[in-house]
Write a structure and sequence with these properties.
389 residues, alpha/beta, 4-stranded parallel sheet, binds zinc ion, 4-stranded antiparallel sheet
């Protein structure tokens, strides 16, 4: 057997320095011998890891080591992850944001992010979105009144409460058109800031804005569907790769029993219902835009140039928060974003049982990490002593 860590004499063949840890599979530590077939399996204690999302701001500061406090926090986080108490998965958004970084060390930053995630990666946004909308659509069809539950399986491909094996897998990805993405990001932020003056003249409430943003999102899904259908009719099949396929997925339900018009009407009915409003990613992203609108109306972001700078990452931030927050126990996010997520009417922390931290609530973040460390059980210490002999 391939022994990763030798611990001593083999109880089977009695040879010295030949017995040790082979690997960890789920919660079983396998010990074996390099010379004979003798092996034992040791069950490790059950784990209950917390999921913490670290944003680009945190990770790039921890990587650059230019601010002592980030280095310290990153060390605590590494220690907690090693102790099987937390995981900090990376997401495809981290990768996209890193590639945008105008810095010679961006490859090294990407390595650092992968290392911090220890092989845990969230599913891409579009897959989570599709899973959440489909779940909600099923509830709509069944008139299910129960509070929708969040399934970790939608967000993470692997079971998180397994003990980590010695070798975690590298996170791979496709190359991206960095320049094009950077340009489109700048254009989008400029467009958004360009709306602010008009927003200030509107007397809508937070609830109305929230509703408006939701309807806008639904319209986009329908529009994408119509565009795709037209392109397909014209023989353009590349569209199949680009579309999030939300409407298509919902139209698939009962396709042998109902005609297309009735199915389409039903999908439109769903988009107008509370079931769509309750889809976590839709609820959060539209809510965050509504919260931003409120801030603008209350006199923030008056200077356009400054606003563009402060909000330069807002589309990525809203994207990762709305996609991953329901699956996380805690998130470290940007200062401008924490004001939005803490909007009382949105009630994100309670609704999804997720804590949010930012640089301006630094001490609370460190307290949160320290508490996790203090709650480590003796069983886990015992498990760690077996795994890392
Ligand atoms: Zn042996």
């Amino acid at each position: 057997m391939l022994v990763t860590r030798i611990i001593g004499k083999c109880p089977g063949c009695k040879r010295e320095n030949s017995f040790g840890n082979v690997n960890i599979n789920q919660n079983l530590l396998l010990r074996g011998c390099i010379h004979c077939d003798y092996s034992i399996q040791i069950p490790l204690p059950a784990l209950s890891k917390k999921i913490i999302y670290l944003d680009q701001f945190f990770l790039s500061h921890a990587f650059r080591e230019n601010l002592e406090q980030f280095v310290e926090a990153a060390n605590i986080i590494a220690e907690l992850a090693h102790a099987q108490l937390i995981i900090c998965p990376c997401s495809p958004i981290h990768k996209t944001e890193t590639l945008q970084w105008r810095h010679s060390q961006k490859e090294q930053l990407l390595e650092f992010i992968k290392k911090t995630s220890r092989g845990n990666e969230f599913n891409p946004e579009y897959r989570i979105k599709r899973a959440q909308i489909t779940n909600s659509f099923k509830r709509f069809l069944e008139n299910d009144e129960k509070v929708p539950s969040i399934s970790l399986r939608d967000a993470l491909p692997r079971e998180i409460n397994n003990w980590e094996d010695y070798f975690w897998i590298d996170v791979k990805g496709l190359p991206e058109d960095t320049e094009r993405i950077r340009k489109s990001k700048e254009d989008s932020v400029a467009q958004l800031v360009g709306l602010f003056q008009n927003w200030r003249t509107q007397n809508t409430t937070f609830e109305q804005d929230h509703q408006f943003e939701l309807i806008d999102g639904a319209k986009i899904y329908i529009q994408l569907y119509i565009e795709m259908a037209q392109r397909l009719a014209n023989g353009d099949f590349t569209t199949l790769l680009e579309s999030p396929m939300i409407v298509e997925t919902l139209l698939y339900f009962d396709k042998d029993e109902m005609d297309i018009q009735n199915r389409l009407n039903r999908v439109i009915g769903f988009f107008k219902s509370k079931y769509y409003y309750e889809v976590p990613c839709e609820y959060i992203s539209s809510g965050l835009f509504a919260a931003l609108k409120q801030k603008v109306k209350n006199g923030h972001y008056v200077n356009e140039e400054k606003a563009k700078k402060t909000l330069s990452g807002i589309f990525y931030d809203i994207s990762f928060i709305s996609t991953y927050a329901p699956y996380c126990d805690a998130m470290f996010i940007d200062n401008p974003m924490i004001d939005l997520v803490k909007e009382p009417k949105l009630n994100l922390e309670e609704r999804f049982n997720t804590k949010f931290f930012a640089r301006k609530t630094w001490n609370e973040f460190i307290d949160y990490l320290t508490k996790i460390k203090e709650q480590k059980s003796q069983e886990i210490d015992w498990g760690l002593s077996l795994v890392h002999v």
